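Reminder: ligand-aware prediction takes two inputs, not one.
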Amino acid sequence: MIVNTTIKNQKYRISFDVNLKKFIKRNLNNYYKVAILTDNNLYKIYKDILKIKGLLVLKIKPGETSKSHIVKNRLDEELLRSKFNRNSLLIGLGGGVVGDLTGFIAATLLRGVDLIHIPTSLVAIVDSSIGGKTGINSNMGKNLIGSFYNPTEIVVNTKFLETLPDKEIRQGLGEIIKYGIIKDLKLFRKLESSNVRFMENNKKDIASILKKCMEIKIKVVQKDFKESDLRSILNFGHTIGHAIEKLYSYKKSHGDCIGVGMAIESILAHEYFDLKHEDLLKIINILDKFGLRRVTYNINQVELLLDYMQLDKKNKGSSITFSLPCKIGTIMKIKDKHTVEVSRKTIKKVLIKYLNEFKNI
Ligand code: ADP
Ligand code: ZN
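Here is what comes back for the chain with zinc ion:
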């Protein structure tokens, strides 16, 4: 797969099931220095692959706390100390955390060095490795410091998924279901008819589903890299999902929070816009089938959730912006825009309705 980045006619390649040792060795011949950044979990499992003469291996602690100025600073210094120059390559081997951090280092070190993503989690494969968003967290919130920076290549090896814990598979399924709802009825139906544990054995199905999701994301970001309209459709479930993540101080996983977010935003789409009741129920059912409605909130937290939504960097005035489905597979368009503004009062009603009529916990 070749991806056009729409910036300066740059292109990058997405390769599947590559022999990693050979791939890294080839790059060692092409660059002055090659460094690979990974987390300790992955290093423990895959250290043999990384034992390559001349390859600099950098490690971070797993988890969001590593997306910080302190960790970035340590890595920047380590790279410069080891004589990293403009003709050097930085590879990120890991999930979204490793990818975001590696991307941001590559974007800023020496004003930009070449970057390759090797996403190892389901979320990173179908979502975060594509689209050029890189960054770290601030005390004020997640991903507030960063830049748009594209890799020269993304290497997808589905074998990595064999060691990914069930909980992390579920997080990726949250994003995959999202792609079905916003853009692909066929994908949604396929997920509806799949066994809950299809990720464990059906290799052919997995590869085709991953490719489909990557294609959807690529098409969307190619048309609207800087999120002026179309890219917002990827935020379905995330307006409310992000507020729930913040409510739990980011201790609950992203996919679990956007699962509830998709359920509530679908109720909003049904109650106030065109989503049919039948489609709403299908969405709730598929989220339940994959265990994606396990996080909740209580009535006393509704106002706080609304405050968090209003604080979000994507919202402007007193109303809150949503991208909502009009049917499964399609995001509604009003006045040529893929977003709608909804008042705080309306969202409050929907948040309460969810607790009274839909909460399953
Ligand atoms: P995400 O990819 O969901 O954005 P992380 O980068 O935090 O988030 O990855 C989630 C967790 O999964 C981390 O603890 C990471 O070490 C672990 N992980 C990622 N890929 C693999 C893998 N292929 N095998 C085992 N653990 C993995
Ligand atoms: Zn997401």
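The pocket of adenosine-5'-diphosphate (ligand 1) is lined by residues 39, 41-42, 45, 62-63, 94-98, 120-121, 123-124, 128, 160, 163-164, 168, 171 (CB under 6 Å). The chain has a mean pLDDT of 94. We will return to this case in the review session.
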